[in-house]
Every structure is written in C-alpha cells, then in structure tokens.
Design a protein that fits this description.
- The protein is built from 25 helices and 39 strands.
- With about 1050 residues, it is α+β, with helices and mostly antiparallel strands.
- Strand 31 and strand 32 form a beta hairpin.
C-alpha cells in the first residue's frame, strides 16, 4: 500500500523490531491542526461494520468477513450509486492542469476544508475574501478531503444553495448552531501554578471558524490516491531561510503548482461570489471538492481506538475452519480491523491486519480484548475512489485511555508537538553555564546596569524574557523602558539551534509541564533576565507626557542587570498600598532578594508610576477604539502526584494589566520600525475585522434581551462596559454575553508584509485598533519574535551604515549625526529611498539574515500552524483535567444557563467549569417534547407509555437516563449526603503550592442544587440544574457528559 507518512524526524533507530514507535523517544514533526467547530445537530453516518474495498486483494475481508459477502448498497444511504459509477463512490480528483485552469478562470476556488464536529457529513470551506463559508454536504461532495486539507472546490449554482441557519429572522436558537466552542484567546498563557509562565501575551486573539487565512503558497497536486512526496516534505519540515540580495526561492519551489497569473480575474471571481451572497443573505453557498492540493498533516497524526470486539466476533465464525486448516487461524493478508478516531471530525478508518505492529497482532491472536481500551496513533495511508473509508496504518500505542499519561502523549502526538530532548547539535551551539557578557558587547551596546530594572512574572516563572524600568525626566515627562531578552544573539540564523527552534516554533504549556522552544540552558539561564545577572537585551525607551502621548522613542541593543524578580501578587500589593515605602522594611522574607545599589522604596515607586502610566495608556487605547473581551478562566489544583483534585475560576490581576500595556506598546513600536525599514520582509501580525453576519446576530441577541449594544468603531468596548455595569448582579449572563461577543471575531495571524503590500489596509489589528502590530516581547518562547529581533537589528545596523556613509561623503549637516533615520519616531522615507539608504538597508538585511518575502511567508504560515497546535494542546489538557476531576467525583451538580433552545436539543453554559454543552432530548424513551415556536419555549414531560423502536429509522429510542438523572424525592436526601461526603473527601486534600484551595467553594457540597420536576418548562437564559459526569476513557474518547437533574416519583 502507498504510504502517506512523511516524518523524517522519526529515525529508523527509534522504531522497534516490528515497527512500533516508542512514544517517549520520538520528536514529532510539526503540523497544523484546525480545531474549529461549526455546530449543528449530531447526525453520524451509519456504521458500515468495517466494510471497505482494496485493490490489493481480490476479496478483502473486514472484521474477518470477505467484503464481497457483506457489501450492500442499502447500508450506504448517503452514497450515490448509478449505472455509470462502475462501483466508484467518489469522483476522480481533477488533474493539475485542469485544477490550474479552473482556478485561473474562476470556475473553482482554493479553500480550507473544515469538518463540523457535531456532524461529519457537513464540512465548510473558507475562500479567502469571502465572509460566508461554503457548505460541502455529504461524503460524495467532500470527495475524500479531511479536516485541515487545502482543497479546490466548485461552487454550486444558486438554485442549489441551502437556507442559512437562523435565517427566519432573529435567531431563536441563540447558540447560533455554527458557532459553539469559540474561546477568546486574549492570553496565550495560564495560571502560574500550572504552567510556570502566565505572562499576558498582549495580543487579543479570537478563535473563529470562518476566519483562518489560507497561506498563499503554490498549489500542489498529486494524481495518485497517495499523497505526493513534495506535499509533505514541504510542510513537514521548517522552512529553510535563503538569504541574499536575490531572495531566490529554494529549488524545491520549482515543483510547486504555479500561482494564478490572473490575480485580478481571481479577485473578480471572489467579488462576484460575494455579490451573490450579499444579494441572497438568507442562502448559504454550497459546493463540492474537486481536488486536494495540500494534504493536512493531521492525516499523519490520527488518534483512536481499534474495534477489537467486532473483529473477535467475526473471527468466531471461522473457528470451525481453523480446526480443519491450522493455518487459517492466523491473520489473513486481506483482513481489516476498524479504527475509530477520537476526533469526530475524522471518518472511521480501516487498518490492514498484516500492517499492525507485531505486539498488537500477537495480543489479538491470544484473544486479548484489552487492546480495545488502548489509544493508538496512526496515519492515513490511502483513500481510493472505491472505498467509503480511508486506509490507515497504526504506528504507536499510547496505553489505556482512562489514564492521564497515555492521554497526554496522545494529545502531543495528535498535534505533532515535540517532547523529546534537544538534539546534541543544537546544544553545541550554546556557550557553557559559566558564560559572561563579552567585553566587546559592552563596548557596542548601551550599558544600563545602573538603571533600576525589574521583572514582573508569575511566582513560578523560570523563563524571564521581559523587564521594565521608569525614570522621571527634568521636563516633567517620564521615560519608560521595556527590556527584552536578546535571544537572537545566541540563536544565529541557519544553525542547528535555529532550525530546531523554528521546528518547535513555540513553547507549549500544559498542566504543570512546559515543553520549551529553546533549551533550558538558554531559556532559563543565559537568555533569561534573572535578577543580579548581567544579560543582553533589546531595549525600547519612550518619553511620555502626562496624557500618555509619545514624545520620542529609542531602540537599541543593551546590557542590563535586573535588580529583582517580582511576582504579580507582590506588584499588586505595591499598587494597592499593602506594601509601601514605609512598611517594606518590616516584611522580611516576603520580599525577594534585591540586587544592586537600589532600595525597596526605589522599586515600589517605580511600580506605582508604571501602574499610573499603564492606566492612562489603557484608557487612551480604548478611547481610540480598542476592544478587550475578558472572561473567567478555569485553572486546576494538583496533588503531589500531578493529579488534579480541584478547580477554580480566575480573573486577570491588575498587575498583569500593568505589564500588558507596555508589552503592547513595545510590539507596536517594533512593528512600525520593521515595516517601514523592510516593507517587503517584515513579519507582522494582523487581526481582521469581525464577521459582519455574526456581529449582527450578536446585536440581535443583545437587543432581544434588553441590552444596548453599539458595535461601531470606537464604541464597542464602551458599550460592553455599560453592559457589564448593568449585569453586575448577574455575572453568568455577562460571561455569556462576552462569549457571544467573541464569536464574530476572526483569528489573528502572522503574515509577511511583502505578500500583502498591495493591501496595506488589511494589515491592521482590529482588537487593538492599530495599523501595525507584531510579536517582539517573548523571544524565549516564540520563534516569530526572534525573526523580528533580527529584522530590528538590521534596521539599527542600516541606520548606522547610512550615517557613516554620509559622514564619509561629507553630506552630514549640523546635528544630523544624532538623527535616527530608520528607527526614530519619525521615519525618513527620503533617506531610505536614497542610493545610500537602499545600500545600507540591503547590506544590513544580508548581515542579519532577514528572510525574503517568499520564505518569510512560509515562516508565518508555519508559525500560525504551530500556534494553533499549542493552543489545542492547552484546550485538550484542560478538558482532560476536567474529565479526571469528574471521574474522581463520579458526578457534579451545578446550575446551568440555557444559551440555545430548539425542538431537538438545548445548549447550556456551566459557569463553574466555563464550558458549553448540549443536551439532546429528541427520541428519548418515556419523554415527550413540546416545542412552542412562537414563544421559543420548550416543555419536557414524562409519558406513561413506552416506545421501543423509532418510527422513521432503525434502532432503539435512547434511554431516559442518557438525558436526565431522575431521582425519587424519597431518595433525595440520601443522594445529597452521598455527594456531600465525597466532596468533603476532596476538600480534605492538601492545598496546592499557593494555598488557593481555601478560596474555592466546592460546587457540590456547599452550593445546594435543587432538582427540577416534570413537566419542565424551559426558555432562553433559563437556569436549570444539571449533573455532569465523565464519559469515555477506556471505551471511547473522553468527554464531559451532562444530564438534566430531575426529581420525580415516576423514576
């Protein structure tokens, strides 16, 4: 069979004798993961019982049975068969030439393929420049595309378009079916006791399903059913820099499918589609996949369970044959076993038994059923036109699905996160621990070691990459300094360390572990701004007046020595006056060690001044139209074995806002400098405007509930603040409002300025309301920041070269030697465009290895992928922690608010866990459902008669206990006592490091949740009691189950 696995990092020696990879010893390659959900009702295709075809066997066997005997068209209701299909389920993919021609003529469009997690038969394709996604409905139309593929689609004619959900007027089901599980990513960090680093990331990022930009790369196409080598090789390894004046693409680029030469015609095609959508706003465009041009690397990282019991069942039928022919008991070369992915966006897959690792085959031959409880890792090998399922190959066994460590390893594998040790070649690029700042650096850098500089971080942080300082100037203004670790000094371009850092792209924070982007010797020692140590830095100073206006700024390389490391808590106490200049001498060991010629009053004064300035900057930013969508976040308390035993909701501390404002300002300043100095090769970050359709739906939601909302430019944030004040006594509803406010928001992404030089109006950052933005302040944990540092260094170098050139040619005017042409507050465009300026900028770009446009676009796309993957790891680990907690508690009672309501399901929000869930109540035995459309009211009641079989389709009605936990009033006190005893056991667990457990009110024992009774009447935003419990583990994907909590004598 043709293999699609392209993982050069999986060395041959890492594989055991039979091909099974040891999870703990593998450095997984990076890949994009697009966990972006569009929610509709949960309809899954019928289980085909493992039926599939294979070209390699005349009569393939599924679960031990030859497929020819069990294949039946009636089992495939969603497949289209006709006399001309010749047994093929899917249409052939278009050829490279046909695809190219169709894209050029606007007959087809390039798009990102996303699958609805609640209904795999529905997928959505995002076309760049089109606000509404195209629906791809049914597996025939999806044509073997999987989550994350870049495809070419042909849009259907207008009469075939479907009705837009919620298009009958104001949305009734306010869960806005397509838009669930969208979390504001205003901070890419978490609580200090979990991650060690929770610095606010000073970039407001929103996960939105219709927003991810497609990297504008060359189109790849592979005519065979197996992915082409070039597709995976390009994406599965980091982009290599190619430096020099020529900015030539790599040789491999010649194999790329060419760009459309008629860019204006493509835009006209997009414009025409947009015009049709605007003309028919109640219609959603539909289409079909005609080619897969870039295969998602998710194909190489499938996690799931083998359906072993099904295979054993079919094997029993051949035991009689086994007695007559002793060889028949062995596994046939044409037998398949079904693999069910844990991610519902992926289809079930068939695994050739002979391809399984020997350790699994031996256990199967022994009849070991426990294999079905173990998570396995696999990759998609092939998916031909005749097969309803893709073929997969198992390469990893992680362990029992009910245990934390196998789950964590599976999460890392699924997101292609490195968790191996750093390569020796990378470590050899670093100096020893005894390294000191070289004397040469002291002569070419500004020496700031006598300035009062300090860091503010979580108490457990070990990678300190930013520090602050402040001075009052004689003219009454203040000079604020941000000092960032100069990581680019150690990570030189094109070295082994640089390549590995680019491969990892970002540090990953999960539970109490950190998977660093850089070796600890650098990230926690040589590069970290540890107190009392001389360190290299990139510094930015601003002179600010009393109203926060910038009078001047300076950027350059420096040497600093931090005087102390402050925690957020300490800084907050200084701001609040709990620690003052008068009381600091009495605090003793509570304060950290202070280094240098400074006293604590110096530090306290600096913190207070910085706090006042940050408040001014923050208010000024919001007055200028910035937006911040804050929401409560959950964090977990762990016992000494690393197992979560409790959870809390946390809010952002005021001291973190202090740091945030100056990091935002530093990132903005760096973006302005590099985009002006190198307009074709600046790595920037953009945040597009919200999806207008969804913004209007949010406005309708607020209007319906009597909340005034103004989303016009400059008023959105103030409007939300007024709603906050109005809902100050209903924090749950305000959390819901903020959740819905985030849904129209699109995703912030990295981009190369040269790629979008003709669309400079699209460079802006919507949430920050600024025209330029980048990431500069976290080079110890983000690779794009290192690239930005190199570009800044080139701008500084070019400025020096230009000034020197003018001196040599005697063109320097009086006082000009102090002018900052390229890095000052005013950019001298004439100087940059002069022959001396162009020569200086080019020479500096070569020296500091500033990448060309094409290569930088690849770095941006790769960084976007890795950033999404790291976020998915965090989300998956949070879900795992919730699951472990509920597994331990058995169940948890909580109030929930109804977000969405309809005749089939309701969407609820559980504030205590900060999650949304659905309860499906259609076709439940013993339950009647009455949906009153006119008033958006639901009535649930018990019925006296029992229904066993569904009328419209085969199968049984679901049991009532799947929807509701029904308790007799006679047993209510006993159940409450049971919950209370278990909760007390949980509370008896020792508190965590920070003693936070004492602040937590247990959601079960100390909040009296009363059950409801039937008949139950539910309206939008009603509060209902629910029981949460852990689902899956050994018998399927982990999830948080939820049921109504009901009391009835008829239970």
């Amino acid at each position: 069979m043709c293999s699609m696995s392209r993982q050069p990092e999986l060395d041959a020696h890492a594989l055991c004798e039979h091909g099974l990879t040891s999870v703990s010893n593998v450095a997984f390659n990076s890949m994009p993961t697009m966990h972006i959900n569009e929610e509709v009702e949960h309809i899954l295709p019928s289980d085909l019982g493992g039926q599939t075809f294979s070209k390699s066997c005349a009569e393939p066997i599924a679960g031990g049975v030859p497929l020819g005997r069990c294949m039946n068209k009636d089992l495939l209701p969603f497949y289209h068969f006709d006399d001309n299909s010749r047994g093929k389920i899917f249409a052939p993919h278009w050829s490279m030439e046909a695809t190219n021609e169709a894209v050029e003529k606007d007959d087809a469009f390039k798009a990102l393929f996303r699958v609805n997690a609640h209904n795999r038969l529905e997928a959505y394709c995002k076309i760049e420049g089109v606000l509404t996604d195209v629906l791809i409905s049914g597996i025939a139309a999806q044509n073997r595309a999987v989550e994350g593929d870049i495809v070419v689609i042909k849009v259907d004619p207008l009469p075939l378009w479907t009705k837009m959900k919620g298009s009958n007027g104001p949305p009734v089901n306010v869960s806005l079916a397509e838009d669930c599980n969208l979390v504001v990513e205003a901070s890419e960090t978490a609580d200090g006791n979990c991650k060690g680093k929770s610095k606010v990331d000073v970039d407001y990022e929103y996960a939105e399903p219709e927003s991810f930009s497609i990297p504008q790369k060359g189109i790849h196409y592979d005519d065979s059913s197996c992915a082409g080598e070039g597709i995976h090789q390009e994406l599965n390894v980091p982009v290599d820099y190619n430096f020099g004046n020529g900015y030539h693409p790599s040789a491999s680029d010649s194999s790329h499918f060419r760009y459309s030469s008629g860019q204006s015609e493509v835009m006209n095609g997009v414009d025409r589609l947009c015009a049709m959508i605007n003309s028919y706003p109640l219609k959603r465009p539909t289409g079909r996949v005609v080619a897969i041009i870039e295969r998602s690397l998710r194909r190489d990282a499938i996690v799931g369970f083998l359906n072993v019991k099904q295979w054993f069942y079919y094997r029993e039928g051949f035991k009689k044959d086994a007695k007559e022919n002793k060889n028949s008991s062995s596994i046939s070369a044409c037998e398949y076993i079904q693999l069910t992915p844990t991610d519902p966006k992926f289809p079930k897959m068939m695994v050739l038994m002979q391809s399984l690792p020997d350790s699994i085959k031996k256990r199967l031959e022994r009849g070991d059923p426990t294999i079905e409880m173990e998570l396995v890792g696999a990759h998609i090998d092939n998916w031909d036109e005749e097969s309803p399922f893709p073929y997969a190959r198992v390469s990893h066994i992680f362990g029992r699905g009910s245990e934390m460590e196998p789950q964590i390893n599976a999460i890392l594998f699924e997101n292609a996160i490195y968790f191996s040790e750093f390569y020796s070649e990378s470590l050899s690029c670093l100096p020893s621990k005894a390294w000191e700042v070289p004397a040469e650096e002291l002569t070419i850098r500004r020496d700031l070691r006598n300035l009062c500089i300090f860091t503010i971080d979580p108490s457990t942080a070990t990678d300190l990459d930013d520090a602050l300082s402040v001075e009052r100037l004689p003219n009454g203004s203040v000079r604020v300094g941000v000092h960032i670790a100069d990581v680019s000094y150690f990570v030189l371009p094109d070295t082994a360390l640089d390549k590995e850092a680019q491969s990892r792209s970002t540090s990953v924070y999960m539970l109490r572990r950190k998977l660093p982007m850089l070796p600890p010797l650098l990230s926690e020692n040589l590069g970290s701004l540890n107190p009392g140590e001389d360190r290299l830095a990139f510094s930015i100073f601003w002179d600010l007046n009393s109203v926060g206006e910038i009078l001047d700024h300076w950027i350059g390389r420096t040497v600093i020595r931090s005087c102390c490391k402050l925690s957020y808590e300490l800084a907050l106490d200084m701001v609040d006056g709990m620690i003052s200049e008068e009381t600091c001498d009495t605090l003793g060991n509570r304060l950290p060690l202070l280094h240098g010629p400074f006293e604590w009053p110096d530090v306290i004064r600096s913190v207070k001044i910085l706090h006042e300035i940050s408040k001014t900057l923050r208010q000024k930013r919001f007055n200028d139209g910035a937006l911040q969508l804050e929401s409560s976040k959950i964090f977990f308390l762990f016992d000494e074995y690393g197992i979560p035993y409790d959870s809390m909701l946390s809010e952002q501390e005021e001291s973190s806002f202090l740091v945030e404002e100056f990091m935002l300002l530093a990132n903005r300043t760096a973006a302005e400098v590099i985009s002006r100095a190198f307009p074709d090769s600046a790595l920037l970050r953009r945040h597009p405007e919200p999806n207008m359709r969804k913004l209007r739906e949010f406005e309708a939601f607020c209007c319906k509930h009597g909340l005034e909302l103004d989303t016009s430019s400059g008023h959105f944030h103030q409007s939300l603040e007024h709603i906050r004040e109005k809902l100050k006594d209903d924090s749950v509803l305000f959390d819901i409002v903020m959740s819905y406010a985030s849904r129209p928001m699109q995703l912030a992404t990295y981009f190369c300025s040269g790629v979008m030089k003709d669309n400079i109006n699209d460079w802006g950052h919507y949430a920050l309301a600024i025209p330029f933005y980048t990431h500069f302040t976290s080079p110890l944990r983000r690779y794009p920041d290192i690239v930005v540092h190199r570009t800044l260094a080139a701008a500084i170098e070019a400025e020096e070269l230009y000034t020197r050139s003018r001196k040599i040619s005697h063109k320097v005017r009086l006082g000009e030697e102090l002018t900052r042409f390229f890095t000052g507050i005013y950019f001298d465009k004439d100087a940059a465009e002069s022959s001396e300026g162009r020569e200086a900028l080019s020479a500096a770009a070569i020296k500091h290895r500033v990448p060309c446009t094409e290569l930088l676009a690849g770095v941006a796309a790769y960084s976007n992928d890795r950033k999404l993957a790291s976020r998915h790891v965090k989300d998956a680990c949070d879900k795992l922690c919730m699951w472990v907690l509920l597994k331990k508690k058995e169940f948890l009672l909580s109030d929930a608010r109804v977000l969405g309501l309809g005749p089939r399901f309701m969407t609820i929000y559980i504030q205590k866990l900060a999650i949304e869930r659905r309860i499906y109540y259609e076709e439940v035995e013993g339950l009647t459902v009455e949906w009153l459309e006119a008033t958006s009211t639901l009535v649930l009641n018990l019925c006296a008669y029992k229904r066993t079989f569904k009328r419209a389709s085969p199968g049984n009605y679901r049991a009532l206990n799947e929807v509701a936990w029904v308790i007799s009033p006679c047993n209510l006190n006993a159940e409450a006592g049971r919950v209370g005893r278990f909760a007390n056991e949980c509370n008896a667990t020792p508190s965590g490091k920070n003693g936070l457990a004492s602040q937590h009110v247990d959601p079960v024992s100390e909040s009296e949740i009363e059950p409801v009774v039937f008949p139950l009447t539910v309206r939008l935003l009603s509060t209902i009691p629910v029981a949460l419990h852990a689902v899956g583990g050994d018998d399927g994907p982990i999830d948080i189950g939820v049921r109504l909590y009901v009391s009835s004598y008829f239970s």
